[in-house]
Write a structure and sequence with these properties.
- The complex is a heterodimer.
- Chain A has three domains: 50 residues, no CATH class; 45 residues; 33 residues.
- Helix content of chain A is 79%, strand content 2%.
- Chain A contains six helices and one strand; from the N terminus they run H-H-H-E-H-H-H.
- Chain B is built from eight helices and one strand.
- Chain B is 76% helix and 2% strand.
- The termini of chain B are far apart.
- Chain B folds into two domains: 99 residues, RNA polymerase sigma factor, region 2, helix turn helix motif (Rna Polymerase Sigma Factor, Chain: A); 86 residues, Orthogonal Bundle (Arc Repressor Mutant, subunit A), CATH 1.10.10.10.
- The chains are: A mainly alpha, B mainly alpha.
- At the A-B interface, helix 1, helix 3, strand 1 and helix 5 of A face helix 2, helix 3, helix 4, strand 1 and helix 5 of B.
Chain lengths: 150, 185
């Protein structure tokens, strides 16, 4: 605990919240008799407590609470669905890439120029995909109106 | 070990075993608490709903890592607080300014004396504005004490800090809040 004046100032919080022991309370009350600065601050805190005491949280309709669990369950299902979908998509893509690599790029019968052409298209498509995805993420983060329901 | 702690830890153990009814029981027990804590921090109903639901999902996913010697709720609260911090940072980055709670209607005036209601409404807007200018840590302690009406012991256990620190953090947070309110008047 801080010493001197700071100690009493901090105790003001405990005083208005009824959290001081009877000894601490008596000590502070004694101090308040002689310290106008602390008395003034106590008044400010008491007023603050009174104002906030008259405020309450806006409640939400009962049907929203009834659907609360369903909302969580839906999110859990979506999460599992996305994980399974992603794993499946990665496996299929890996198989396709392996197949293309084996049957096309490693096939000596295919002309080199065609391999270069197809390879360039694939690389270009990857770059475009990465660029568009990055742009979309960037735009989404900066969209001021995304919370507005259309 | 208290009954609540044992109940919560049993539920977590059942969740680790894949028991869906235990998941639901935990959600039903803490959904309002989670939502209103998040609401106090982020000041937006949709975001608070999203954060509280995400917090439960994280509990289910990391239930295996939960230390059974600990209490469930402080652990759960730390997940909510982290999600709230991330949410506020994301929104601040997006809007290039601090999240403004003044226009949000998450804190309303209690229906009381009609004569003072108008003044209270103005005060509520001022408090919301002042709250949005506090740091996350200051706002957190104000929300826990003023709007969740938690005791110092409860806050100390929740934030894993000594009771004396709760008192001093509250003092400095209140001082800043009062100063901001004074400037906004």
């Amino acid at each position: 605990m801080n010493s001197g004046e700071d100690k009493y100032k901090i105790m003001l919080s405990g005083y208005i919240d009824g959290e001081l022991s009877s000894d601490e309370k008596a000590e502070l009350e004694m101090h308040l008799k002689t310290c106008s600065d602390c008395r003034k601050e106590l008044e400010v805190f008491q007023e603050l407590k009174e104002v906030t005491g008259a405020m309450k949280y806006a409640d939400i309709p009962e049907h929203v609470w009834d659907n609360y669990w369903r909302g969580i369950y839906r999110r859990l299902e979506l999460g599992i669905g996305w994980i399974l979908f992603s794993i499946g998509a990665i496996i299929i893509l890996a198989c396709m890439c392996y197949g293309i690599f084996q049957n096309f790029f490693l096939n000596p019968d295919e002309p080199l120029i065609l391999k270069i052409g197809v390879g360039t298209i694939i690389l270009g498509a990857i770059f475009l995909l990465v660029s568009v995805t990055r742009e979309r993420i960037f735009a989404y983060r900066r969209d001021r109106y995304k919370e507005i329901k259309r | 070990m208290s009954a609540t702690r044992a109940d919560d830890n049993n539920l977590i153990a059942e969740i680790v075993d894949g028991d869906k009814t235990a998941m639901r029981a935990l959600v039903e027990k803490y959904k309002r608490k989670a939502y209103f804590l998040a609401l106090g921090m982020v000041g937006n109903s949709d975001e608070a709903m999203d954060i509280s639901q995400e917090a439960f999902i994280r509990v289910f996913k990391s239930a295996k890592k939960f230390d059974q010697k600990q209490k469930f709720f402080p652990w759960f609260y730390s997940i909510i607080a982290n999600l709230c911090k991330n949410d506020l940072q994301r929104r601040e980055k997006r809007d290039s300014k601090a999240v403004d709670l003044e226009e949000s209607d998450f804190l309303l005036v209690d229906e009381g004396n009609p004569e003072t209601k108008l003044i209270r409404k103005e005060e509520a807007a001022m408090i919301r504005k002042a709250l949005s200018e506090l740091s996350f840590e200051d706002r957190e302690i104000i929300v826990l004490k003023h709007f969740r009406d938690m005791s110092y012991d409860e806050i100390a256990k929740l934030l894993n800090i000594p009771k004396g620190t709760v008192m001093s953090r509250l003092y400095y947070a209140r001082k800043k809040l009062a100063k901001l309110c004074h400037e906004l008047r």
